Amino acid sequence: MDGIIGCNILNTRRDGRMPSEFTSEYHVHIIVRQGEMRFSDGKQMHVSQKDDLVIWQMSNAIQDVAYSEEFEADFLIASGEFLSRFNPEMVWASKGFIFIRINPSFHLHEQSLRLMKDDFSLFRQRLDMPDSPFKEEVIGRVMQIFLYDLWTVYSSEMSQMETNDNAARIFLRFLSLVQKDCRQQRDVAYYADLLCITPKYLSQVSRSVSGLPASEWITYYATFELVSLLNDLSKTLTEVADLMNFETASHFSRYVKKLLGKSPSEYRQK
Fold first, then answer.
1. Which structural domain, as residue segments, surrounds residue 124?
2. Which of 104, 114, 130, 249 is the most exposed place for a label (fewest CB within 10 A)?
3. Phi and psi dihedrals of 240, rounded to 5?
């Protein structure tokens, strides 16, 4: 992908590229304009047609992709790092992650289709602008608008998922607890105890719903909190370590190095 920005928007006919070329390195968001696309998510086959929104997350095992001869689509690709950096909200991001794993293909009705097309058009306008010191930040804000609009489109179906799927209910309750307590508690057993289940069963639920172990979700939320605190320069590193419940500066420094690849002071210098 050209440039340093971690996302791009393409059209199958204009650019001569197909969405399945990017599944191993990017999250792929597809609006089908005409024709038909078939694919497997590793569990079942899906058929997507005109005005369907298809999202292939990097963690999904997309395979057996086939396109009809007249197939055309616009598609947005985004790196995991870019999405993580500009993710505006954790709870809805987690709900959306689960919903999309279960429903990778979703039909857009008129209002939702117009909303998604407007966002794609805004991406294209901003990506086509000349390079500037703030281009990546501006496109990151467009990504945030897109994510809010996407969660709005999915909102009613995600609400039904919460009430109808027992595993999803447990998992979403787990995420809610992690969001609240991850600064102080980063042990799977702590959350399993609050949910009155065993750590083993919590990990099984997490894997069945999201494809990821419970420990990775705890780390994901803790990293989000850690970065937010480190970015707040009004707080000293000692205060950040206290808020993240580390008893020693050396333990805190090792933890930050492991998650971010830099010591706390190096991260702030950057």
1. 7-163
2. 130
3. -65, -45
